[in-house]
Each structure stands twice: as C-alpha cells, then as structure tokens.
Amino acid sequence: MLWLQTNRQNSGMMNLGGSLTRQMEQDFAVNESTTPHLVNIGRMVEDVENKMRSSLNEIYFSKTCNVVNNLRSMQSQQESIVCRLTIPAFLHRRIHRIYITYCND
C-alpha cells in the first residue's frame, strides 16, 4: 500500500494512494539449524519490497518530478489553468497503466 497526503500552503492539498501486488517463487536450501523457512521467507519479502520501492521510485516519482519541473516556468494564467486541468488526468492515466502492468505480471 502506498499513501501520500500533503496539505501545505505553498503546494496545496494532494492525495495519492495505490496498491501493488507481486508474486515471487524461489527455491532455497533448508537447514533448520542455519537457514530455516522463516529466514528464507524474510529474505524473499525484503527482496520483493526493495524491488517494488525502486520500481515505484523510478517510474512514478521521477515522472511526477519531471511534470512538476516543467510547470515551473513563466506562463500566462490561461496556460496555467490548462496545465492544472491536464496534469491530474495525465497522472491518473499513468497510475492506471502502472497498476495494470503490475496486476498482469
């Protein structure tokens, strides 16, 4: 689960939420004295968690950063209104594509 909410005077209010499901299968040697099942499961959970975090960081947050940086320019009020209406739709489509990609993996 990912949930991000901000409400600042400079940036305004923003709500962002989503979920991501991953499956992984791997074979490990099991030795109850040195590497029991719990240790192997813990490693797998950490590996998948790190991959998911890295993937979200690369795909979603870098794209959001690019969009925000492109908006930080001198524009007319009309252009600014168009951007404010266009960006939420763009981000919604992007999140939907990411969700579909991860659900189909």
UniProtKB/TrEMBL annotation:
<keyword id="KW-0009">Actin-binding</keyword>
<comment type="subunit">
    <text>Heterodimer of an alpha and a beta subunit.</text>
</comment>
<dbReference type="GO" id="GO:0051016">
    <property type="term" value="P:barbed-end actin filament capping"/>
</dbReference>
<dbReference type="InterPro" id="IPR001698">
    <property type="entry name" value="CAPZB"/>
</dbReference>
<dbReference type="GO" id="GO:0051015">
    <property type="term" value="F:actin filament binding"/>
</dbReference>
<protein>
    <recommendedName>
        <fullName>F-actin-capping protein subunit beta</fullName>
    </recommendedName>
</protein>
<dbReference type="GO" id="GO:0010591">
    <property type="term" value="P:regulation of lamellipodium assembly"/>
</dbReference>
<dbReference type="GO" id="GO:0051490">
    <property type="term" value="P:negative regulation of filopodium assembly"/>
</dbReference>
<dbReference type="InterPro" id="IPR037282">
    <property type="entry name" value="CapZ_alpha/beta"/>
</dbReference>
<dbReference type="GO" id="GO:0000902">
    <property type="term" value="P:cell morphogenesis"/>
</dbReference>
<keyword id="KW-0117">Actin capping</keyword>
<dbReference type="GO" id="GO:0008290">
    <property type="term" value="C:F-actin capping protein complex"/>
</dbReference>
<dbReference type="InterPro" id="IPR042276">
    <property type="entry name" value="CapZ_alpha/beta_2"/>
</dbReference>
<keyword id="KW-0963">Cytoplasm</keyword>
<comment type="similarity">
    <text>Belongs to the F-actin-capping protein beta subunit family.</text>
</comment>
<keyword id="KW-0206">Cytoskeleton</keyword>
<comment type="function">
    <text>F-actin-capping proteins bind in a Ca(2+)-independent manner to the fast growing ends of actin filaments (barbed end) thereby blocking the exchange of subunits at these ends. Unlike other capping proteins (such as gelsolin and severin), these proteins do not sever actin filaments.</text>
</comment>
<dbReference type="Pfam" id="PF01115">
    <property type="entry name" value="F_actin_cap_B"/>
</dbReference>
